[in-house]
Structures are given as C-alpha cells and as structure tokens.
Amino acid sequence: IKTSLFWEMCCNLKKRFLLLYATQNGQAKAIAEEIEQQAGAHGLEADMHCMSEMDKYNLETEKDPVVIVISTTGTGDPPDTARKFVKKIQDRTLPPDHFAHLQYGLLGLGDSEYTFFCNGGKTVDRQLQELGAQHFYDTGLADDCVGLELVVDPWIDGLWLALKKVFLFQKEKEGMNSAVDAVSHSLSAATHIMHELNLSSEVQNLKLEDERVRSSDALSQKLVDINLAASNRDTEPSLVHSITPLSQSALNIPTLPPDYIEVQFQGTHGENPHLSSLISEGKTFEAPVTKAVQLTREDAIKTALLLELDIAETVFDYQPGDAFYIICPNNSNEVEELLHILGLSEKGDYFVSVKIKQDTKKKGAAYPRHIPERSTLRFILTWCLEIRAIPKKAFLRALAECTSDAGEKRRLQELCSRQGASDYMHFIRDSNVCLLDLLHAFPSCKPSFNLLIEHLPKLQARSYSVSSSNLYHPGKLCFVFNIVAFPACPARPVSRKGVCTGWLAELVAPLLHTNKNTLDTKRGSSLTEKISIFARPNNTFHLPADPSVPFMMVGPGTGISPFIGFLQHRQKLKEQHTDWEFGETWLFFGCRHQDRDYLFKRVHYLAFILDELRCFLENGTLTHLKVCFSRDSSTAEVTPPKYVQDVIRLYAKERGYFYVCGDKKHMADGVSDAVVDILSMEMEVDKLEALKILAMLREAKRYLEDVWS
C-alpha cells in the first residue's frame, strides 16, 4: 500500500529531466537512448541532447535535474563531442557558485585497462562540483574491461527513484507541502519496500508491450518448458542452451525498442558515394601501398606486417609519434553471407532509401548520419555498419521478436535479461559473438534490414601508429601491425581475422615476397587500389623539443612501431645539425623468440630494411638497445630477464623522458609498476609517494603512453 501511495503521488509531479550524452563510438548514446526509453515507463520525460548541441540546452538556467552519460577516449580525454562543453566549464573566470542551482547524476564509461579510467566522466564531474553543482544521485563508473552492464544496469535501475525524490522536493518548494508530507511519511518505508520487491513493479513495464505479444509469449513459454524438460540431460549451458535456474526463471527483459527506420528498395542505377563522405572527423586522402614486408617468420605466433604508403601526391602531413586512421570495409564473404541469410542476395546492388518512420514511437528519432542518403544495400553492409559488433542487449531483445522458434526466442530473451547477465558475458561478449554468429545459432531469427540499421553501430575507421619520419622518407608513410586472429570457440565455431588487419593482409598479399631467402624483386611495384586515410594527430607522444634531453623508449612487439619513426627522425636531425647536442637514447624491446619475431632486426630477405636497429646503433642514433625474449630457453648461469619491465629495473639510475607503446594489460601496467618501484627505491620514498611522483611525471608529459587493449 505504501509503495502504491508513493507512485500515485509521483504521478502528479513535474517529470522532465535533461539527459545529456557525450560519445566517441556510440556507447554513451546507446545507453542514453535506453534511459530515454525507460523514462516513459516510469512516467518521466527525458529531454535528450548530445553534449555538443549547446544551442539546445542551457545549464546556467536549467531548473530540472540533469543526467549525464559520458565516455572516455584516447588515454583519458573526454570524447570529441564533449570538448566544447568541457572547455566552457573549465573557464577559470567562472565563480564557485556558478552551478549552485544545478542537480545532476553522472554515468561515466571507461576501460580500467587504461591508466586514466573514466577520466572523461571524472573531469566533468569534478568541474561541476567545483562550480557548486550538487549530486542528486551517486556517480556511476562503468568498466568496459569487465562489462559496462555490470554498473550501467543497476545504475539505471536506481535512477528512477532518485529522480522522483528530486521532483518531490521541487514540489515542496513550490508549496505542495501537504502532498509532500503525506509522501515523505512513507518515503523511507517505500524505498525499503522497493528494494525488497526487487523492482518487480517495474518489471511489468519492461514486459512485452501488448496483450497479443504477452499471449504469444505464454504459449511460447509452454513450448520452451516442454523442450527444456526433454533436454534435462544437458548439464552445460551454451550460446543456444541454458540450464537451471535460468532456464526456469521468470525473466526481467528490456523494454522492446520502438522501430523508427523505414527502408525502401529502389533501382540499380546510380553510383555509391565516395568514402570521404562517410567521414566527418577530417579530410581524407587516398594513398597506394608501395611496399609490404612480413617482419616475422612463418612459424611466429603472430604475423607482423610493415606497409609503406605513398603520400607524395597528397598534402597529408605527420610527425613521428602521430597516428592515423584507415577507412576499412567489412569482410566481403561475411557481407554476402549476411545478405543470403536475410534473403536479400538478389537485392545487394539495389539502391535503398532510408527514412524515419512517420508513426514511430521513438522520441527524438534522428536519421543515422553514418548511412548515406542514397547507396546500395551492399555498400551499407560493407562500409557503413559494424557487422562484427558485439550485439547489445537491446538488439538481442529486438532479435527475439524476429524469431519464430519458441526455444530460440526464449534463449535470446534469457541472454538479454537481467537473470541471464552471466550467460551474456560468457557466450556473447567474451566470445566476440556477432550478428552473423547469432543468425547461424538461431536460424529461425529473420530480422529486417531496417533493424540492422537501427541497432548496428557505425563501422569505425581503425587507428595505427606511424612508423616512419617524413624527414627520413619524404612522401612516405609506414606503419606496422599484427594480423589479428580470433580463434574458433564453442559459441563461435568460425575463426576470423580482424576487420582491418585481415583486409589489409589480403589486399597486400601480391606484394609480399614468398621466398624469404632472396632479395625483394618487386621494389618498384605498388597496388593499383588505394587506401583511404585521415589524420589523427597526437599532441603529446612526440620527441622532446630539446634534443639534448635523453629519452627511453619501451616498445615490445609492434609497440616498437612509433620508435622506428623517432629514430629515423633523430638520425636525420643529427645529419642536418652537426653542431647540436643530442642526449642518449634507449630502446627496450621484447618479443617471444629471437629468431622468429624480433622486428626490424633480421629482415634479411628484403633489401630496403636490412638490420635497421643495428644501423641505428652503429651510427650513434640509438645509444642503448636492450632486448629480451620471453619464450626462448637460456643456458646461461644467470637467467636473463624475460620481459621489458624486468629489464628496466636493471637500469634504475638512468634518467630522461619515458615513452611506452604497446599492449596495455600485459605490458604497460607492468612497466608502470617497475617505474614506481624504481622511483621508490632511488628517491627513498614509499610506494604511495612514488605513485604521486609518477602522476606528476605524466602531468608534465615526461612519462608518455601510446597503448591499446
């Protein structure tokens, strides 16, 4: 009764709140859209805007509560869509009570594998607090390393009660004292009851949307129960099969997202748009691949390639340490397979018109900017949609409605339910399952093409570190990468290569020399097909401005890539400025096997890279080269270090700028720990103080990282 009274009183309250999101790759926007959809079920109205749309909201005059969902990009920066907002609230002339009227709740997204976890959200949170804003709800920090939903789902669940408390207090200020007194009397008890009920009153709002669907689900549930009873002998869960207690549980499933896209097929006459029209981040350039080199032996665990692009005919410019983006397509075989399963093979070359449905129930439905106004079905699946994306729970919920088999439908509902969170993590997220895998696993699922546009994110360009110097190789741009491989697993019985690295490897196969014992005979050859690229300048990961400053480079595996550019640039500077003073340079490199994957050491089968590291040592560009091999056995009396972080400890007294590039989880954290230990030992301070010193070095841009998961 008390719970009913609480919600009854809330129904008469003012119910708008401002919902802001700032996203880099679409995660924060998708979560904000989920909040917007759930708000209606709670009798609330979310006024949702991208944080960059500063002409559509005004925090200086905002009276309603504000909910912020913000991601983090790079090594801890706010996303591009938040830059103007952050710059504005960091204005030092603003008074400390500038936002004293503001009440907000913030959900930050990040990845704990990176040093500055959720720093985009933390930056906004801290700055709003400094300007007097008040939390009406505790800040949530979701970790993509373990699964965003572990924090996101309960944070959203608790948001509604927090918002309604704010609205109650607002009404109290407006003079509704009698109503507030009645509700306040039961507020704490109602809160307790809400938790005891485990949000069961909300579950009804999240159940299937109309009586027809509910009746169908009741029948489906009976059929599923029969199927489950018949398969009692199955004791291990899988992508397509659950076990008790999940298989017998009532499910809390997300609300069905309203459809909002309308697709019309037109003729086959016309031309697809240029790839440059797909990019809004900057000017694109087309560059042919002029060289391709395999840097590893055939029996290496990972295959590393070096590609050289000809940028002489463009105005593309870069510095050593910069990165750039490559616009890549989805795998053509996977696109054709998807067309076949969707029953659209014969319409692959048809142009499609994409529009917003006039009768859609989705609030704020907007045309997806990454879909061209007019292009073919095959073009959209190849260049616009991330068909390899791990499906979010909202997508699974929508796919369940397209599934005719009762057992398959129930399993998809389980995977998107709160009760099935563990199965979702194990069989979907951790297994890198994509839409194509789901359609194979659940053959009665037949989604429409508009559903794919609504739920698949934009196909992102891939970023790579530059491995050359424009001063050393004018008109050339080199980069190094491992061909990413996803081995088959029970949830995904097909092995795959990375979207971009697999495509590049296939593209340059004609340029790769097959006989590693001879010199390259194709040095003058290049591909006729060009790669589309655009700049991603790095404002910090550059050589020290003062050439006399010593610096250390830590780059195991392909992490050595930007440091080749550093050394090439340094060599040219030494040749051009013989009167300059140059500091010492250290390179710490590690790999598994000395004779299999020692990059840039023994590329003896290609004349244009012949023991480049030895050349840097001999001409004095590189002062010290320290290497280690983690999988090689040793007959030495003293076992040599296996990892770069171990080698670093042997040179604790060396000083200079510090650069780290490579894998975050398995290397960069270990290097950071080693540096903390060295600081603690050399400066005779405890570990906490050493951590503070390292933070100061990061702040001063003397300890710099270019790392990836």
UniProtKB/TrEMBL annotation:
Gene Ontology molecular function: [methionine synthase] reductase (NADPH) activity; flavin adenine dinucleotide binding; FMN binding
Keyword Oxidoreductase: yes
PANTHER family xrefs: METHIONINE SYNTHASE REDUCTASE, NITRIC OXIDE SYNTHASE-RELATED
Cofactor: FAD; FMN
The FAD-binding FR-type domain, residue ranges: 282-544
Matching InterPro entries: CysJ-like_FAD-binding (IPR003097), FAD-bd_FR_type (IPR017927), Flavdoxin-like (IPR001094), Flavodoxin/NO_synth (IPR008254), Flavoprot_Pyr_Nucl_cyt_Rdtase (IPR001709), Flavoprotein-like_sf (IPR029039), FNR_nucleotide-bd (IPR039261), NADPH_Cyt_P450_Rdtase_alpha (IPR023173)
SUPFAM superfamilies reported for this sequence: Ferredoxin reductase-like, C-terminal NADP-linked domain, Flavoproteins, Riboflavin synthase domain-like
Domain of life: Eukaryota
Pfam families xref list: FAD_binding_1, Flavodoxin_1, NAD_binding_1
All residue ranges annotated as the Flavodoxin-like domain in the record: 17-160
Keyword tags: Amino-acid biosynthesis, FAD, Flavoprotein, FMN, Methionine biosynthesis, NADP, Oxidoreductase, S-adenosyl-L-methionine
Gene Ontology CC annotations of this record: cytosol
EC class (word): oxidoreductase
Official protein name in the record: Methionine synthase reductase
